[in-house]
Amino acid sequence: MLSNINTYLTDMMGPAGPLIAMGVLGVFFIVMTLPIFLTKKEDPFDRLAGSAVSKGPSSRPAGQPKIELREQKKGPNLDKFAAYLEPQDQQEYSDRRMKLLQAGYRTKDAVRTFHALQLVLGIAGLLIGALYTFVLSGGTSDIKWLAIQTLGPGFAGYYTPIYWVEKRRGTRQEEILNGFPDALDLMLVCIEAGQSLDQAVQRVAKEIQPSAPALSEEFTIVSNEMRAGKDRPEVLRDMAERCDCQDISAFVTVMIQSATFGTSLGEALRVYAAEMRDKRVTRAEEKANKLPTKMTLCTMMFTVPPLLIIMVGPAVFDIYIHMVQGK
After folding, report:
1. Counting beta carbons within 10 angstroms of the beta carbon of residue 188, is it exposed (0 to 12), middle (13 to 18) or buried (19 or more)?
2. Cα–Cα distances in angstroms (integers) from residue 32 to residues 35, 37, 102, 142, in the given order
3. Of the segments 3-17, 58-72, 206-220, which one has the largest average pLDDT value?
4. pLDDT digit string (tens) for 265-282?
5. Which of the listed ranges 14-23, 84-93, 154-163 does the model predict with the highest average pLDDT?
6. How far is CA 19 from CA 7, 30, 149, 275, in A?
7. pTM score of the predicted model
8. What's the pLDDT score for residue 140?
9. In whole angstroms, how far apart are CA 113 and each of 69, 79, 106, 118, 224?
10. Integer Cα distance of 93 and 317 in angstroms
């Protein structure tokens, strides 16, 4: 019976007929099971709130605002899909949350939005690949090439948010590293002028905002957390974890050790700021030394072939003319 079905589908839709039928059947089953998985269970707090409302307006004095039983932390659009768009493993959720923080995405719904984009772009890429394979190109008899054409755009769409987040992380870390030596010099000036560390961080965050927005944002968060009463070593460690830069981690270590052992904060900043300036010069020299090596390939590709054509071309043409005339 399966052989007859296979023959019938091949005769009706071509060599890719069985694969198309399996895809259509899979989509049908997915659509049928989606309502079951996406059904949101009733929250006990919602039932309690409903019973409180059913008592009528007499249960709450006039003019008194309504008291919510639970803080609404989740977005209204993706609330019912949160269980399917967020990792259930706490470690996986924390790692993804930290990656997004390091890329500059600080909203509460960042993880959920990230997974929603992965799902939407993956399905869209899969549909585009299937449309191109079975409609525009007319299909092919090679199963491997058929699978690559169909599944390739789906994988590309699924991994596009990951690539984008990693690229944003790298760009942000580079911006922080480039602006960090200037921020240390400005912080040293503020400390030596008699300001406290909290005031210095706040002033530095304000002054470097045009040149290094990412670093200014980190210093602003540090200043706000310190003013809120959070422990200073914990605030600095959180900053190092968000930035994910070796220079920031070393700076945090210097600040914590200076506070622990009672050494001069200005002296520690002066030594570390000089080291950061030297390190920035070293990175610039390293990039300059790499430039001739990178230019070698471009020189060989765009300079040597035209030079050979100019020098050898006339001789080859004369040899060709003499060979034609000799015949």
Report:
1. buried
2. 7, 10, 39, 31
3. 206-220
4. 888 888 888 888 888 888
5. 154-163
6. 12, 17, 13, 63
7. 0.64
8. 56
9. 26, 11, 12, 9, 26
10. 69
**d(C-alpha 80, C-alpha 62), whole Å:** 33
Amino acid at 217: E
- Specify the pLDDT at position 160: 92
Q: Give the residue from 103, 112, 149 showing the smallest Cα distance to 127.
A: 149
Amino acid (1-letter code) at residue 235: V
3-state secondary structure 173-195: HHHHHHHHHHHHHHHHHHHHCCC
pLDDT in tens, 115-130: 888 888 988 888 888 8
Q: How far apart are CA 23 and CA 136, in angstroms?
A: 17
d(CA 180, CA 240): 13
Provide DSSP, 51-113.
HHHHT-GGGS-TTPPPPPSS---S-SSSSTTHHHHS-SSHHHHHHHHHHHHHTT--STTHHHH
Question: What is the per-residue burial (b if ≥16 Cβ within 10 Å, else e) of 139-149?
Answer: beeeeeebeeb
CB 103 within 8 A of CB 165: yes
Residues in Cβ contact with 317 at an 8 Å cutoff, skipping those fewer than 6 apart: none
| Nearest-10 crossing angle of helices 17-37, 2-13 | 100
Angle between helices 197-207 and 143-192 (to 10 degrees): 120
